[in-house]
């Protein structure tokens, strides 16, 4: 049946979709376009790297293992952590995996310092140790496990570099820093000296407990972790609206007579009138009721507002609502 997954909501797909849509609509203010493109690229690369590792995890572990992807924990004391992958074995060993989807060359020196090669300057630039990062994650994760009454026996830390990067490191040590395609081998290679997949399989073979019992325990653990996630996990959605071009102002005060007017969007009115969109826009433009901006956004003119056209907003952005009776009269 495969690895048992504990679900966490992930806002990154939503953030990626928002950036892609706004860039395509040319709705991003000029001064933020490059920032939006960089943000989109980093999100896409990060998500791609985590999906690659998830694929490997799915094809490495049995249905007696539990996995949580993209776990964001927030504690009352202010501590927080975002863990790319948490894998838990039948022996209650916890593997914390940090994914770095670099396309640059990456190296680790004998002192455990990480750096990447800047493609433009061809110089090496240091970055914070992902292993130290997972160790901080362990403290937060232990706290929420204790709060949930879940006991774990051992913690191990891994850093996985994406398929696009060349990794160099000392010949000895740092076996837990590897490329994505080497992750499976790392877990099943007994030479690493870690408590790994083969040890777990061997223990199960010698145990008087049947494999089915371990599977049942794994599913029970998954349920306990689901409850823990609901309590401590927080899906963070970044507010990127500051990147958008200024929106047209909407008059706050409206008369009661205007409020009571029945209005429909252009698409609904076009179905009602059985008119092509171009003819509708041209007619109202000629009458001086609407104006089209360079980015294709349609807004009411002063005369259009007096006519009864008003702006509204939904999750896709701003659009016009047209007074039904008055607009139908125009096209009779």
Give the structure's gist in a few sentences:
The chain is built from 11 helices and 15 strands.
Residue windows where pLDDT falls under 50 for at least 5 positions: 190-212, 252-259
Q: Provide the structure class.
A: alpha/beta
Q: Strand tally, please?
A: 15
Q: From the alpha carbons, calculate the radius of gyration and give it in angstroms.
A: 28 Å
Distance between the termini: 64 Å
What does this structure look like?
By secondary structure, this protein is α/β, with parallel strands linked by helices. It folds into two domains: 4-232, no CATH class; 247-330, no CATH class. It contains eleven helices and 15 strands. It has helices spanning 12-24, 33-58, 130-148, 183-188, 197-206, 211-232, 256-259, 266-273, 277-286, 302-307, 324-330; strands at residues 4-6, 66-74, 80-88, 93-100, 106-108, 114-117, 124-127, 154-161, 167-168, 177-179, 263-265, 290-292, 298-300, 310-314, 317-323. It has a six-stranded mixed sheet, sandwiched between helices. It is elongated, with a radius of gyration of 28 Å.
List the helices and strands and how they pair.
Elements: E1 4-6, H1 12-24, H2 33-58, E2 66-74, E3 80-88, E4 93-100, E5 106-108, E6 114-117, E7 124-127, H3 130-148, E8 154-161, E9 167-168, E10 177-179, H4 183-188, H5 197-206, H6 211-232, H7 256-259, E11 263-265, H8 266-273, H9 277-286, E12 290-292, E13 298-300, H10 302-307, E14 310-314, E15 317-323, H11 324-330
Parallel strand pairs: 1-2, 4-8, 5-9, 8-10
Antiparallel strand pairs: 2-3, 3-4, 5-6, 6-7, 11-15, 12-13, 14-15
Helix pairs in contact: 1-2, 3-6
């Amino acid at each position: 049946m495969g690895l048992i997954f504990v679900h966490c909501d992930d806002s990154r797909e939503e953030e990626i979709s928002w950036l892609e849509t706004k860039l395509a609509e040319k709705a991003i203010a000029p001064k933020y376009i490059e920032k939006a493109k960089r943000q989109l690229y980093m999100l896409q690369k990060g998500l791609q790297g985590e999906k690659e590792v998830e694929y490997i995890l799915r094809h490495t572990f049995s249905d007696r293992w539990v996995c949580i992807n993209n776990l964001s924990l927030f504690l009352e004391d202010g501590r927080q952590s975002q863990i790319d992958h948490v894998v838990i074995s039948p022996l209650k060993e916890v593997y914390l995996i940090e994914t770095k989807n670099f396309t640059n060359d990456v190296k680790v020196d004998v002192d455990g310092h990480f750096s990447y090669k800047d493609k433009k300057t061809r110089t090496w630039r240091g970055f914070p140790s992902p292993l130290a990062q997972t160790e901080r994650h362990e403290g937060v994760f232990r706290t929420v496990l204790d709060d949930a009454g879940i006991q774990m026996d051992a913690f191990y830390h891994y850093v996985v570099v994406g398929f696009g990067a060349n990794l160099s490191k000392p010949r000895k040590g740092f076996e837990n820093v590897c490329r994505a395609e080497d992750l499976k081998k790392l877990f099943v290679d007994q030479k690493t000296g870690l408590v790994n997949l083969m040890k777990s399989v061997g223990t199960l073979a010698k145990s008087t407990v049947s494999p089915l019992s371990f599977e049942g325990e794994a599913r029970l653990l998954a349920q306990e972790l689901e409850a823990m996630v609901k309590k401590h996990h927080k899906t963070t959605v970044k507010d990127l609206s500051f990147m958008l071009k200024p929106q047209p102002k909407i008059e706050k005060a409206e008369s009661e007579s205007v409020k009571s007017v029945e209005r429909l969007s252009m698409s609904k009115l076009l179905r009602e009138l059985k008119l092509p969109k171009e003819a509708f826009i041209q007619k109202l433009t000629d009458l001086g009721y609407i104006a089209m901006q360079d980015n294709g956004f349609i807004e009411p003119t002063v005369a259009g507002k007096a006519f009864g056209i008003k702006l509204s907003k939904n999750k896709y952005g701003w659009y016009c609502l047209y007074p039904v009776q008055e607009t139908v009269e125009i096209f009779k």
